[in-house]
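User: I'm putting together a teaching handout on how multi-component assemblies are represented. Below are the sequence lines for each component of a complex, exactly as they appear in our records. Could you produce the 3D structure of the whole assembly as structure tokens, so the students can see both representations side by side? Please keep the chain order the same as the input.
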Amino acid sequence: MKTRIQGNKASKYLLILFAVPALLNFLVFRYLPIFWALRTSFYDYSLLAGFRGFIGLGNYVTIFQDSAFLQSMGVTLRYFLYYVPSVVILALILGMFVSLPKPGVGFLRAIIFIPVVTSFVVVSIVWGMLLNKDVGMVNAILQNFGLPRIPFLMNTKTALPTVALISVWKNVGYSMIIIVAGLKGVDKSLYESAYLDGASSLRIYWSITLPMISRQLMFITIWATLQAFQSFVPIQTLTGGGPNKATNVIVYHIYNIGFNFGRMGYAISMSIVLLVILLLVSIIQMKMFKRDY
Amino acid sequence: MLIARRNERILKNILYVLFFCLITIIFIFPMAYVFGNSFRNTQAIWRNAYPFTLKSFFTIKDFTMDGYLYSLGLTDTARFQGVNITRNLMISLMSSLAVVAISMFVSTAAAYFFARLPFPKKNILLVLVVATMMIPQQVVTVPLYFVADFLGLINTFWALVVPWYSSPFVVFLLIQFISDIPYELDEAAIVDGANRFQILWKVILPNCIPGLLTVGLMEFQFIWNEYFWPLIAINRTKLQPIQVAIAAQFTDRAQNWGAVFATMVLASLPIILLFLFAQKYFYESVASSGIKG
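Assistant: Of course. Below is the structure of the complete assembly, with chains in the same order as your input.
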């Protein structure tokens, strides 16, 4: 039985005052930017000249005919294909590994998680230097072994996978901890009975462990997808979208068009398109996981 | 049979040690690289760059604090060139602490409202709050610029604080923590004649200190490491938080590499130490996000 403080109706409505400061923040800084962006997307708008006239769906029509936007979405999609499977598979392997009852796993968890708490700017710069063609340590090691030096970030073929790899190094610890938490919740007696039934460890893994952590797998997949579509820091600090637009991911493209080219209305319309795409992708992924398990 | 099993165990242990070392190298070396080079000057860094040997990597022959002194504006050259990141560090520290302090009150009050207080159609409000967690932050950063500009926040210290003083994710996590507190404690306080505010202050807050630590550390790390938002919201060098200052120092033409490394250490060490001393709370914030996702 819950006791309730009795009060008149007015004071009951006043209770919302507890939530008002936080709700105000969400209204002004989370919802308002989206509505503002929606409105702006119907105008020809630039940073310097301001609103210059209503153009209806003009921005949206232009976006889907704009080769630069389509090129950037292509880069983003490729980045997504490099990044998401790598993060999910590595998080799964590392999560299993650091869940073993062995000495030193706490240490491993900590060092894998340190990049997560470190800023992406620092991580990007460090890897930018390590992978530098002329002075980087990775290339020095390659040369030690008699291998050719690789211009990781300066080559149109290798730049995007390299940026994806840097992001994996930075973020995998987060997903790993989610897997660790998921594995902790798996009922140990399930393993024992399967083992007694003579199931192989691979079979146990496939039929017991994976389904038991399907929620965590769903979460890290969606999380990694959102990150993949929003990659910005390593691009802005290391490649500037280059070489030859090979790493021109969409958030960087939007930033570039808006702030460096001053076409703000157009940049904001692209934000709206990206927002819709991301919401759709998240919903589709959730549906797919629900169907499987 | 017994020998075969013992051999298998030895093999497994060797594999464990190998994998352990591999992970350690991949995650420790980049950090050691930054830390070591922060105590060298530019010439020594390049001299050690090739050939790569463990000796050149770990050498303390060129030990110097010049990078740190220069970054902190304590040498004549630095004073002459106007280099001093102390100010940027302070801005990052002040804005992070301000966000955490305000959020402790605002977000906890909102979470208390959602977890405990009667209010008509409260669930609809909660759905609206949770829905904002679906908004990809980097995508709406550009639109957020205009809302902040309208409010006169751009190029002020408050641009770093006001948009983030509460977060839907933090409110959501705190609701879970508060729901775990037995309602009997509230009832006992009501019997003693406490009002809602006194219950929040004397019953709820003291009982969700682990929860507050978890979200507090999470927010501190978020604001300390944030880059995209301050990059566009602040363009006065004197107001830049440390992450933006690092990127500027990195792209600066007349680079002092020892100083770049020293700045990265100064910007990362506080948050890494915080993590090492409070690992439990960092993992907790990650794990609970995975479960709720």
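A couple of points students might notice: Chain A touches chain B through 93 residues (CB under 8 Å). The first strand of chain A starts at residue 43 and ends at 46.
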